[in-house]
Protein 1
Amino acid sequence: MNLILPDVRTDVAALARDVVKIYGRGETAVRALDGATLSIPAGRFTAVMGPSGSGKSTLMHAMAGLDTVDEGQVLIGDTDLGRLSERQRTLLRRDHVGFVFQSFNLVPTLTAAENIVLPLTLAGRRADQAWIDEIVAMLGLGDRLRHRPAELSGGQQQRVAVARALAARPRIVFADEPTGSLDSRTGEALLGFLRHAAHELGQTIVMVTHDAKAAAYADRVAHFADGRVVGVTGDEEK
Amino acid sequence: MWRLIIRNTVARRGRLALTLLAVLLGVAFVTGSLVLTDTSQRLLDDQFRTATAGVDLTVRDAAAFDSAMGVEVERDPLPAEVVDRVRAVPGVAAATPVVRGQGLIGVGGKTIVPAGPSLLLSWEPAPVGPFTLRAGRAPVAEGEVVIDAATARRHRIGLGAEVTVRAERAERLRVVGLAGFGSGEGLPETTVALVALPAAQRLLALGGDFSEVAVVAEDGTDVRRLRSAVSAALGSGYEVSSSRDVAAVGAAAAKTQISSLQVMLLALAAAALLVGAFLIANTFSIVVTQRTRELAVLRAAGATGAQVMRSVLGEALLVGLAASAAGTGLGVACAAGLRDLAGVFGMTLPDGGLVVTPRTFAVAFVVGVGVTVVSAFGPARRAAAVAPVEAMRRSSADHLAGRAGWGRTVAGTVLTALGAAGLSIVLAGPGSVVVLGEAAVSTVVGLALLGPAVTPGLVRLLGRPLGVAGVPGRLARESAARSPRRTSATALALAFGLALVSFTAVLGTSIKESTARSYAETITADYVVESARNEMLGGLPAHVYHHVSELPQVAVASRLRYGHWKDGQSVEALTAVDPVTLPRVTSLHMVAGRLDAVAGGGVVLAANVAKERNLKVGDTLAMTFSRTGVQRLPVVGLLRDRDAQALSTGYVISLDTYERNYREHVDASVFVKVADGVSGADAKRAVERALADAPTAQVRDQAAAVAGRNAMIDQVLGLVTALLMLTVLIALMGITNTLALSIIERTGELGLLRAVGMTGAQMRWMIRGEAVLVAALAIVAGVGLGIAFAAGTVAALGRATEATLTLPVGPLLLVVAVAALAGLLAGLLPARRAAGLDVLTAIATS
C-alpha cells in the first residue's frame, strides 16, 4: 500500500509551525523545540544550522515524520503529519521522504544497488531504471553497485545513501550531518552532489549541520538556537 | 572485581535470563530424575524391610539364583515336617509356616486387575506378618478374608462384603477386616488378600505344603549362629537366609526397572544440558561481542587479560549458581510430576514422601555450575583477547561475529567425514553398534566445528523461498547468513534435539514393524490367548490351555512358556514349546537339526546365537536353572533368526524339559488354530466363553498380538519423546535468545530500515522469517542425522535380529511441522520487540 499525497503544486514542500517538543516531565523537562517555525520551499537546498543541542535534529525528525510533536503543526505538502498514525507516517516516509544520516546509512547485508532501491522494494514498487541510472551516474557509483557497504569507503557509502534518498523521487530529502564522518575533501564533494540534485534535478533538500562551511553550499540557511529558528539567510537570492 | 562482576550480571539480567532458564531446566531435569529414583528406591527398601521386620530368619527351598530380570524366581513349596524340624533347633522361639502366591480379587462379578501383583497370603499377626488390621478382625475361620485398605477404598469394598478370590481355585469369601502395610494403606498398584493358612493352601492347591517358614529367634540368641544351626539341621535342599538379606534381594529385584529408568532419565537430562550448553556458549559469546567496546575500555584502564577473563567467568558462575539453586528447587517440585508422567506411559513407581539426598544437591550444583562455566570458557578467552585499541574503533560488532577459522573448518570436515565413513561401514555391513556410536560422536562434533563454514550457503539455499516475500524475507536470510557461528550454534542445538526425537521415532517404528513382520510370517495361528497384564513371564493359568484345547471349535492349541536361566553372570531368557503341536500353528524354518528333537531334552538355538557361541548341532550348552542348578543340554537344532524372534528368545526347549527345571507354571501364549468348517468369529466366541474363569486372559488376533508385543516399545518411545521435548524446548529458547540479542546488536540497522519506510509488520515478518529459517536449518540437519543413524542402528541390529528400516512418515512430518511452528513461536517475542523499537532511539544508537 502506498500513501498517496494530493499532488498539489505548491512552493512550500514542508512546513513547521510553532512546533513545541518537550522531553521528560516536571523538573527535568527539556523544551527541545520551543515554538519553532520553518518553511521549506520546494526545489531548494535548505540548511538548518545551529550549535549541537540547539534542537535542529529534533526539528528535522519532526518534519520527516520520524517523531511526533507536542504542540504546533508539521506539514509535508498539504498533509498534516499530526493527523497520521504511526503506520501512515511509516508509509509517508517510505514513499515521500528521503534520508541521509551521518553514518550507518546502509543495510550491511545488501549490495549498494539493493540499498539504493530499498524504499522502493519495501513498497513493492518497480524502480524507474532510467532515473536510477541517472542518479548513479551523477554520483559516480557505476562500478560500485555490486559491492556491500563494508567494501565501500566512507564517501562512497554516503553517496549510496544519497542515491537511495533520491531513488523514489521523494517530496523532500532530509540529510542529518551527512558529512559529519567524512574528511573535508570527500565531504565537499558530497555537498556538491546535494546542491546539484537541488539545482539540476529540482529535488527539495533539507540538511541539518553545525558546520558553517557545509551550510555555505545551501541556497538558504535557517539559523537555529534554543529550540527555535532565529533567522533565515539567503532567501533574497531567489 | 567481584562487585563489578555482580553489578554487570545484574545489569545484563535481561540478556542472561534465557540462559539462566536453560540451565535451570536442565538442572531441574537432573534433580527431578535423581529425586524420583532415590524416592522410589527408598520406598521399595522400606517396603521390603517392613515385610520382614518381625522375622529373623526365612527358610525356603534352595535355588540357584533369587531373581532374574526383575522377577523373583518361584521356589518349590516346603513339606509340613520342615516346620517341626525348625522348631526343634535350640534358640528358635517360633517357626511359622507362611503361604504366599497370586490371587485375584473379584467384586460384584468384576475382577480387579492392578498394574502390579495380586498377592494372596496366609494371615499372620505381627510381628511375623507385615500387615496390621485397620478395621474389623483377623481372618481366622473358613470363608473369611482381609483385604488391604487401599484396594477396599478404591473399589468401595466394605466390611461384610462378599468377594471372590481366584488363584488355582476360586472361592467366595466374606471381608472381615481391612489391613494396612507399615504406615500405608497397602502396597502400590497391588491388591492383597489375606486368609487363614489352610484356606491359602487350598486356594493355591498346595495341599499341606507352604511357601516358607518365618523364624523368630529367642531373645539373646545370635542370629548368625542360629542361621547356621537351622541350616545344618535342614540340610542342603533348603536355604536359610536372614530376613534382611531376603528384603535386600527382593528390593534389588524390584529396583532393576527403576535403575534402567534412572539411566534413561539421566541420559535425557544430559542431552538437555548439552543443548543448554550450546545456548550458554552462544549467549556469552554474543554478550562478549557486544561488550567489546566496554571490555576494551577496561583493558585501557589497566585491567589485565586474565582479569577480563575472570570477570566473564565470574558472571557465568553467578548465572550457574542462581540457575542451579532455582533448578534444584524446581526439580524437587517436579519429581512427583515426572512420576505421574512415567505412570502415564505405563511405568509404575511407588508413591510416597520425596527423598532429597545431599548427593542430589551436589550433583545438581556441580552439573549446573560446571556446564555454565565450561560453556562460557571459550567466550571468556575471546574477551581476554580484546585489545585496548578496540575502544577507539567505531564499529566493533562485526569482526568478532565469527567467520569460520581455517583450522576449525578442516577439523570439522575431517571429523564429519570420519563419522560419515563409520556410518557407511555400518550400513554396508561389517560395522558394529560401537562403531556407530563413535561415528555419531564424530559427526556431531564435526558438524559443530564445520557449522560456521557451511551455514551461510545452507541458509541461502534453504532461505530461497523467503526471497519471494521481498526485502524482509531476503534480509531475514542474509541476517542468518551473516553471523554463521551464531546461527549454526543456535540451529545445532535444536538439530541435536530433533535428531534424538527422529532417531527414537525411526528406530522404534523399525523395531515394531520388524516384530510385526516376523510375527506375521512365522505365526500361522488364527488367534492367540495372552494375559492382558504386562507380566514378564506371561500370566495365563494352566487351565486356560486345557479348556481351550478341548473346545470342538479348535483344531489345535499350542502353548508357550518363558523362563530365565543364568549363563555365568548374565541372565538369559528361553522359550518352552510343545514340539508336536507348535508346527501346526507356526511356520518355522530350521537351519539345521530338527525341532521335534527337543522332546528328548535338548535345546534349539537361534542361528545367530549358535554362531555367536560357536555351537553346532551335537554340542552341549550348560544352562543354570534356579530350581535345578547347572544342566547340560544337547544342541539339537538351529532355528532361523526371524522365527526365533517370533518366539521371543534365541533358546527353545520342550515343555517337558521346562517342567523338570522350573517351578513356574503360567503360560505366556496359547496359539489357537480354528477347526475346519468353523468361522473365525464363532471360534473366538467359544474361546472367550471358555476363558470366563480367567479374567486376565485375552483372545487376540494377529494384529492385537503384535500390538501387545509392541506395547512396551510404545511406552518407552512415548516417555522418551515426551522428555526429549524438553530438550527441544530449551533449543527453541536458544533461538529466541539469539534473536533477541542480535536485535540489540542490530538496533541501528533496524532503526534505519524503519526510517526509510519498513513497516512494523514487515519488520516482524523479517525477524520471524529468520527464526523459522534457523529452525529449518535445524530440521534438515537434525531429522537427517536422526534418520541416518537410526538406519545405521537398524543395520547393526539387523545382524543379530531381524530388523529392517521403516520410516514413520507421519510422525516425522509431525516433528518437522512442530519444529517449524515452534521456530515461528520462538521468533514472536523478538519480532515484537524489533517492531516496537523506537525509531529515533534506534538511529541514535548507531
Protein 2
Amino acid sequence: MKEQQDKKQHETQILQILPKTIRKIFQSESIQYEKLQEIRIRIGQPLLLIMNNEEWILPSGSTDKHIVSKKEMRETLDYISNYSLYAFENEMKQGFITIEGGHRVGLTGKAVIENNRVKNIQYISSINIRIAHEILGCADRILPYITLNKQICHTLIISPPRCGKTTLLRDLVRQISNGNEYIKGCTVGVVDERSELGGCFMGIAQNQMGIRTDILDCCPKAEGMIMLVRSMAPEVIAVDEIGSPDDVHAIEYVMHCGCKLLASVHGSSMEEIKKKPVLNQLILEKRFERYIVLDNSIGIGKIQNIFDERGSQIFQETA
Amino acid sequence: MLTLKLIGSFCVILSCACYSQLLNQQFQHQIDHLRLLYQVLYSIKGEITYTHAPLDEIFTHLEFHYTDLIQDWSRSVAAQIEEKTQHDFYTIWEQSITHYFAAYRLKAVHNKLLLEFGFQLDKADCDTKLGSLELVLKRFQEEITHEESTLANKKRLCNYLGIMTGIFLVILLF
C-alpha cells in the first residue's frame, strides 16, 4: 500500500513540473516512472526521455513528434521554481536546481557573467530533468567489510561516473545513521555540496538519510566538513566526490578530530587513484582503512573489489 | 398635524445626516484597506529582498501573520502556486485579487496598481523585479497620501450635502 502511494507521489511530482501539453503526452504513454531516468526538454526540438537505459522520442507511437515551444519552456520553469525563479539564482549558478522529491533539473542557456564568474543563466533553452532513485539496501553487501567491532572504518568509494557511487554512499549513510546488526547507529554529518546525496529541497532531505543524520546542503566540502565538526559533533562525516587539495586538508582535520570518514571519488581503479597527486598522499599515509571499487561492466552499482589500508584485497566480485 | 410634520422633517434630516456619516466611514475604511494592502505588499517585497524565499513560502508566511480576508487570500494564492494549475503567476494573482478584494470596493486606479504589483512579481530577474516593485509601492504610497489629504474635504462635503439633501426633501414634503 505504502509502495503504491510512493509510486503515485513520485509520478505526481514528475508530472506536476511538466507543462500541460506535455503532461497530456505523458499520460497517453505507458511510462514506468520507477524506471524513468531523464526527461530532456529543448526549445525547437523533440521531447526525449530515457527510461530503462533506452531513449524514447514522444509521442512514441506517432511519426509526428512533439516539438517543444518557448511557451512550454517558460511554463516548465515556472512550475519547477513554483513561479519563483529568482529564489533559485544561487543554484542556477551551478547549472541545476533540486526540486521536491530530490529530482535534479539541469539548465543551459545564455550564461550571465559578472567579474569572470557565472552570475546566472538567462534565455534557458534546454532542461534535463534527472529523476532521483533511491535503492534502499544497496549497501547491505559491503557493510560487513567496512565495519570493525560495530564501528565504521574510514572508507573511500572509487567509481567511474554513472556507476552508482552516490547511491551507495547515500545508503551507507542511511544504514550507519539508523544502525543495524553490523553497526551501532551513530550521528552522521553530510556535506552535500551539489545536493546529490540528500536531494534537499528547501533544506529538507528528500531522500531517506537516517534518523541521526545532519545535512549541510549546498556548502563547499572543505568548509562544510570543518563546520560540521565544530557545530554538530558528528561521529561519521560523509562527502561525495572529493578531489581538491582543500578537501584533503579538511579530511585530515576531520580524521584528527576522531570522526570516521566516508567519501567517494571519481576513478576506475586503485592504481588510477594512486596516480592522482592529491589523493596519493592520503593513500600512502594509510588514512583510509577501506577502498571500495565500483564497476558498471557487470551492471550499475556492482562492487568490483574491496581493499584494506595496505591494498590487500578483501572482497572480489565473482561473475 | 404641524407637530407630526416637524417630527417627520427632523427624521428626514437626521437620516440624511446619518447616511452622509456612513459614507464618511466608508471613505475612512477605504484608506484603512489601502494601508493594510500597502503593508502586505511591502512584506512581500521585504521577503523577496531579504530571504529570497519562493512565492509559495512568502504567501504561507503571510497567512500566519494576518487574519480574515488577507489570511484567506494568501492561503489561496499559496495553494494555487503549489497546485501548479495556471500557466503563470500573474493569472493566479489576477484571479485572487478580483475574487478576494472585491469586498474592499477599491477604486479602479488602486485595483490597477495591485494588478501591476502581481505583474512585476512574475518577472524572473530579481534585480528588475525588486526595482519595479519599489516603483509600484511608491505609487501606492502616493495614492494613500492623496486619499488621506482629500479625506477631510470629502468628509466635510459629505456632511454638508447630507444635511442640505435633508432640508431639500423637507421643503419638498411641506
